[in-house]
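User: Hey, quick favor. My workstation is busy. Could you predict this chain's structure for me?
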Amino acid sequence: MILGEKLTFEYAAYDSGGAAAPVLKGVDISIEAGEFVAILGHNGSGKSTLAKHMNALLMPTEGTLWIKGLDTKAASNTWEIRQSVGMVFQNPDNQIIATIVEEDVAFGPENLGVAPPEIRKRVAESLTAVGMDEHIRATPHHLSGGQKQRVAIAGVLAMHPGCIVLDEPTAMLDPSGRREVLETITRLNRESGITVILITHFMEEAARANRILVMDDGQLVIDAPPRDVFRQTETMQSLGLGVPGVTALAHELRRRGLPVADDILTIDEFMHDEAIKSLL
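Assistant: No problem, here it is.
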């Protein structure tokens, strides 16, 4: 789905007042169709810049990024790339443009020139997929933050992308809204086979992915499954990141001599660990 070789980017190439130092520094990346990949990194690490390359919103200063075999630097490929990779941003209010949910979800397919009967079908299917079909005639500003973000995801789904890139989609939501959105994208990946790339600051969200990519100073420094990433507690802390709360607790208990497993990611796993059960 996505292949990048020696990907380098400087904002100065776009804006004379931009930073001259590279924001991405020779990144090699490969993401297969159907994967759920989380990207972590502290502010300024380059993760959002990398995400914008995947939708051809930015183009490499050096190196190459291919989306389904299409070079993002070729202007003739931009339209097809943006049909293949949909973007969902942090603030759903910046992505919702219509006064009725149905019209907002229909906006993307309309711009692709899809026939009206097919648009209606896609709108219904997309809203059902994100659990918002009962709100098809609702006014977006009457919805909760989590519901708005699910409408934004439905708007992307209606364009039938093979991949969705979500740039901190839960950052502005309360715990209930975060749970709604995370359950939605997890289900879309597992049941519909959509490739999901999730940029997040929440370690518990990243733990649901198949793979985690960790960015630091414009470089990819870790590429591994969640259990392998989060057992590196000291390394993650040195990068200005954390681990899921329950993982941190298990690490501290292990440091104090309790033989707790070193790859715990969830509360359920913690409670079923033999060392913990022996204390109960």
